[in-house]
């Protein structure tokens, strides 16, 4: 028996969960964006 994939990527759920707007919605998410900006990350959230 073959194992099933543990990950089944879908763009919409990913963006809703980890996207820029959902990050900006919460205080902790804004902190994440701030820290990634300070670190100089090219991508702040999932593309």
CA-CA gap between termini: 35 Å
Largest sheet: none
Class inferred from helices and paired strands: mainly alpha
What's the total count of β strands? 0
CATH class division: Mainly Alpha
Q: What's the topology here?
A:
Elements: H1 11-18, H2 20-25, H3 27-39
Structure commentary:
This protein has 47 residues and is mainly α. The protein has a single domain, classed as Orthogonal Bundle (Helix Hairpins). Helices cover 57% and strands 0% of the residues. The chain has helices spanning 11-18, 20-25, 27-39. The longest helix has 13 residues, at 27-39. The radius of gyration is 14 Å and the shape is elongated.
């Amino acid at each position: 028996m073959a194992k099933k994939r543990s990950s089944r990527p879908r763009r919409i759920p990913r963006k809703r969960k980890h996207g820029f707007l959902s990050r900006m919605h919460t205080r902790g998410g804004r902190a994440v964006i701030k820290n990634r900006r300070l670190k100089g990350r090219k991508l702040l959230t999932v593309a």
